[in-house]
Write the structure tokens for this entry.
Amino acid sequence: MKEELKVKKIKDGTVIDHIKAGLGKKVLDILGIGDGFSNTTALLMNVPSEKIGRKDIVKIENKTLKKEEVDKIALIAPNATWNVIKDFKVVRKSRIEIPDMLEGILKCPNPKCITNSNEPIKPNFIIEEKEPVRLRCNYCERLFDLKDVL
Amino acid sequence: MSLKGRDIISIRDLKKDEVELILDSAEKMESYARGEKVLKLMEGKILGTLFFEPSTRTRLSFTAAMQRLGGQVMGFSGTSVTSIAKGENLTDTIRTVERYCDIIVIRHPLEGSARLAAEVSSKPVINAGDGANQHPTQTLLDLYTIKKVKGRIKGLNIALLGDLKYARTMRSLACALAMFDADLTLISPRGLEMTSDILSEIENNYGKKPFQTNDIDAGLRKADVIYICRIQKERFEDKYEAEKMQKAFRITPEVLSQCKDEVAILHPLPKVTEIDPRVDEMKCAKYFDQTFYGVPVRMALLALISGVM
Ligand SMILES: [Zn+2]
């Protein structure tokens, strides 16, 4: 109940809920929210949750998420939920799932990969394993752990 | 099943029945590859060989294959005299060259370069080596050689010997052999073992668990085929250790006296010191035949992807 009230405090924007406790800060980092970001933003940490024990919640006013941003969040906070708020109401609620492919959002850490040269291409990765996440660069075919690419 | 119009970029892109089609087609090409019969299958077609770094053997093998098919070859080797030296990117080079030829063969030091070339080009692209990543025609000719020399691949004990961590040949071959249900023995110096990504690929995709050892004698005793590659000195901290390892992982008549009588030895060539020259004269030495088999395999591939076979 208490939490619902908090959600409703946003008029328009985005609420990312059910983030595993401790990862909320990383979600903000991934969205590039920090110095210079002017929208009202809230990070709630260690909120008691029936489903996952303790969770973090991120609320951002007047921001909608792009597909790339949702995919990126999925990598570090799988199973989080994503709420779109319009006029104080949740108009869309979905679970954030790890995609099968990631296009254009991460850089390949292999310095000898063609995506790191002067070619007009975006790196893309195939998610080969989801728990824990392991991704293969579609170009150099190297397999990476999540920590290598974030 | 048809490979017409297909790019050959990575052995990972090929299904088992597609590999079988290539190997079976190579068999049909052999007498033409030897020059015993003449083919005009690809008359009027041009193969573009873009070697951004030199690899004489591979380039000659592709050239022989195309010419034996009755086609022609154009291209370059090295980048010092080309527009690349002026700073042109690969994308633009491919867009230009694809207008001159029917199939492109590319060798390039950057990993993923061949994949990019294939995306840009409307003509089929064959990867002839993209840095440390893939060299699928090498893997195909390795499979073909084993099949020719041993009559089969399935159930053979195949020992891969040398630098299994960095050698592109070994990493690709290990997966391909597992696909064909061979039993793998992996023998390497400490620190140059096959990496876990390849091992799990082998296990997840083919349910195979290779036997791994740092002891050459234990590894080779049961081998039907020994595939050896070079161990580069630069892989070791000090020169003394490097030389010690090169010596310990060398194939000599003495080492072979512990092996099966019918063992076959393969090597991607060029070889340096890893095989004793006395072995060249022995019946187990199959690496020069292996080089020849590159021609019918590449002929088959060229014919299949251009749709004339
Ligand atoms: Zn890459």
